[in-house]
Design goal:
The complex is a heterodimer of chains A (115) and B (111). Chain A is mainly beta and 115 residues long. In chain A, a hairpin with a 6-residue loop joins strand 4 and strand 5. The radius of gyration of chain A is 13 Å and the shape is globular. In chain B, strands 2, 4, 5, 9, 10 and 11 form a six-stranded mixed sheet that branches. In chain B, strands 1-3-8-7-6 form a five-stranded antiparallel sheet, with no helix packed on it. The chains are: A mainly beta (115), B mainly beta (111). The interface between A and B is medium-sized, with 30 and 24 residues.
């Protein structure tokens, strides 16, 4: 079965531009998570969805960041007015359920570079 | 104060030289401690979940253990293909479903 997929794998943009990053979770997984990973650091939580709704968005750094999951499957992370400090690898993960045994499985990430 | 601390930051081993990686945590009401492996340019790959003190899980040359305040990832007779960054993460009561990660231990196994 297919794992979590993310597109694009790399994105280079200029400061001030708008970008969208897409995540396609494992089929049947109801929970979806976005993390951000800077060089030499562990992933840092941004937001998680249970179904279509954002159950916890406490990790979004500011109002330039927004994410949607309109049909409870594919999710898009949207970043407005990008800044150089937004450069990082953006990771998406999905899990089967909120129950105790809900290991999160990660995609390969999107490397965002803001020039 | 970091909630998850991993040590050492980097570890170099010779092939066959066994060792352990440490993950200590400060959260209360642990709901799970997770070990992941991450290769350069890839996303983290799930290895183990531990839930209660005394629990142990094994997979090939890797064995993860858990106490009330830390976890160890023991690597027995490592091979060069075990070279990777090993990440530890926790989930706790009141912390929603998010994982909080340590910075990882970069393991290099030389042939």
């Amino acid at each position: 079965g297919a794992g979590v997929s993310q597109t694009p794998s790399n994105k280079v943009t200029e400061k001030g531009k708008y970008v969208e990053l897409r995540c396609d979770p494992i089929s049947g997984h109801t929970a979806l998570y976005w993390y951000r990973q800077s060089l030499g650091q562990g992933p840092e939580f941004l937001i998680y969805f249970q179904g279509t709704g954002a159950a916890d968005d406490s990790g979004l750094p500011n109002d330039r960041f927004f994410a949607v999951r309109p049909e409870g499957s594919v999710s898009t992370l949207k970043i407005q007015r990008t800044e150089r400090g937004d450069s990082a690898v953006y990771l998406c993960a999905s899990s089967l359920t909120q129950a105790r045994y809900n290991e999160q499985f990660f995609g390969p990430g999107t490397r965002l570079t803001v020039l | 104060e970091d909630q998850v601390t991993q040590s050492p930051e980097a570890l170099r081993l010779q092939e066959g030289e066994s060792s352990s990686l440490n993950c200590s945590y400060t959260v209360s009401g642990l709901r799970g401690l997770f070990w992941y492996r991450q290769d350069p340019g890839k996303g983290p790959e799930f290895l183990f979940t531990l839930y209660s003190a005394g629990e142990e899980k094994e997979k090939e040359r890797l064995k993860a253990t858990l106490t009330k305040k830390e976890s160890f990832l023991h690597i027995t007779a490592p091979k060069p293909e075990d070279s990777a960054t090993y990440l530890c993460a926790v989930k706790w009561e009141g912390g929603s479903e998010k994982l909080v990660f340590g910075k990882g231990t970069k393991l290099t196994v030389n042939p």
